Amino acid sequence: DSFQWMSRVLQAIDSIHQVGVYCLALVPANTLPKTPLGGIHISETKQRFLEGALHPCNVLMCPHTCVTNLPKPRQKQPEVGPASMIVGNLVAGKRIAQACGRDLGQLEDNDQFLYIQDVLQWRAQATPDHPLFLVLNAKGTVASTATCLQLHKRAERVAASLMGRLNTGDHVALVYPPGIDLIATFYGCLYAGCVPVTVRPPHPQNLATTLPTVKMIVEVSKSVCILTTQAIMKLLKSKEATAAVDIKSWPTVLDTDDLPRKKNSHFYKPPTPEMLAYLDFSVSTTGILAGVKMSHAATGALCRSIKLQCELYPSRQIAICLDPYCGLGLALWCLCSVYSGHQSILVPPLELESNVSVWLTAVSQYKARVTFCSYSVMEMCTKGLGSQTEALRLRNVNLSCVRTCMVVAEERPRIALTQSFSKIFKDLGLSPRAVSTTFGCRVNVAICLQGTSGPDPTTVYVDMRALRHDRVRLVERGSPHSLPLMESGKILPGVKVIIANTETKGPLGDSHLGEVWVSSPHNATGYYTVYGEEALHADHFNTKLSFGDTQTVWARTGYLGFLRRTELTDASGERHDALYVVGSLDETLELRGMRYHPIDIETSVIRSHKSIAECAVFTWTNLLVVVVELEGSEQEALDLVALVTNVVLEEHYLIVGVVVVVDPGVIPINSRGEKQRMHLRDGFLADQLDPIYVAYNM
């Protein structure tokens, strides 16, 4: 009944007083603050409303009808034509925004091999007992190890069991938990001339959502065989699995737990390094499954580039707390140690769920100078160990050995998280300069990476309002509407980056916002999809500028960013060019002619009330939908509606269409710690979120 009454009130006020009502809130009787004389205390009520302390029992907001003074939607202006813009290496009076990592330099002993599997065979002969991998469990004790020879022998056995069964060039899905088995079968496939596809195993407690993804990757990659452990093999064919997928349509499943000790006299030699080495599948934040093809040449170039940037040699130890299934995580687990010979201390991120300190304890124990993690790992450490630094110090955890701690990411660096991590662990000796972010994407998994030398990552402040118009305006720290952006590490050796206009495909000048394009020997060679959409994405991998240098072949990353020449000097003595990533083009919201990045709106919303734990935004028809997770009592749910609407209106000049208040943990997060906004949108449209409250703003 209250809604009918509220709408009658709105109509009455509109017809009698000719004013719109922005927000109508019903509170229980006698709960409004009173003045000493018994009237209603207006300013106190306003204060409570703005702080979210009114606790109404019903709310109706009409921002769409009331807010009439929003800035006009932006009209796009035609750009200046190409001929009048480019003179020498200036565009519209600015230096062309392009930058490159240092040269790849001299070849060393392991660089002459064209194929990564040859490097493993060479190491197995030259340094058979050199330890390559240590896998730690949740207790921090060594669960398994592998020397060069042991890894080679295990790979040989896998190859021997495949060579009779499969043809050269067949695709093989490797469904293993993070560990030595995964690495050994990866090389076993290469020895046998098969193409490995690493797949995250299904979660036994959550088959309904995780098994269909496994099935999809196996089907889309056209894998003719699945290699796995006995336990997972039982799981794939279990009674519970039938509810999620058609278990009769799995290809051949082989378990590699007890392979016979036979070896082949010869291994497969690929005819050219341009041949496919492995497939790398990953689900993007927009919910698209994209597999990319990595050739042998690209694999070698990737390893060499990382080796130079991080100064990796057999005497080094690096600690890795990442999933080994795609992107840079896959390269660091399966490729880099074999190539450079350094020892990798591997901490599967899953182990942190039972012991949060296992990664940092390992870094301290093995005195790792270089360590890699993901944002989800960093978040777990920040939340779980924030109050325990004293206890860790008593257990002699010391992080002063760390020269560089890199967060592997495919997004804009999360400054707030990296800073709070640095601050918390400063007490344990972590240098504030150590923490940085890497940047990679589907077309090239490693574009930037801080490495061990070169200037520290820089931070700039840009005007958020200009950013919506695709412009970069640098401002001072602390100025209104300023947004801090941190450089994503240093551009890797052999990598060239340019900033291109998203529409005209022409080069842009220094500090201009455009799409990041990359040219490098370790670019992937293309998407691997079954649906024949290659033509659609062909220009992602080989595209050329519309004017200027029209010869170089570039790959389009799909990310907006800009290059800025700094006052710092590079290792080469040149002035250093910093790359700032602003966000993925796929994720941006086009609203009122302007381009918004969801993360900026979400940051404002999270700051608006202490009970908002997490937030995600997406558009539905042309409405902005804001989903907030409420930590606290459900009576606060209605307080959030007005606060969320207010903050987005004030800071972003946008009117929120729908506010959805849900329980903690509803917003889906992937293994890289990124929000899956499209999955959330699908859940919202299918009515699966089970919200505490949904407010449709009028």
From TrEMBL:
Q: Which InterPro entries match?
A: AMP-bd_C (IPR025110), AMP-bd_C_sf (IPR045851), AMP-dep_synth/lig_dom (IPR000873), ANL_N_sf (IPR042099), Dip2-like_dom (IPR037337)
* GO cellular component term, pick one: cell surface
Residue ranges of every copy of the AMP-dependent synthetase/ligase domain listed in the record: 120-528
Q: Which organism is it from?
A: Nothobranchius furzeri (Turquoise killifish)
Q: Which Gene3D superfamilies does this entry report, sorted A to Z?
A: 3.30.300.30, N-terminal domain of ligase-like
| Name of the protein described by the UniProt record | DIP2 disco-interacting protein 2 homolog A
Q: Name all AMP-binding enzyme C-terminal domain ranges.
A: 587-689
Instruction: Tell me which family the UniProt entry assigns to this protein.
Output: Belongs to the DIP2 family.
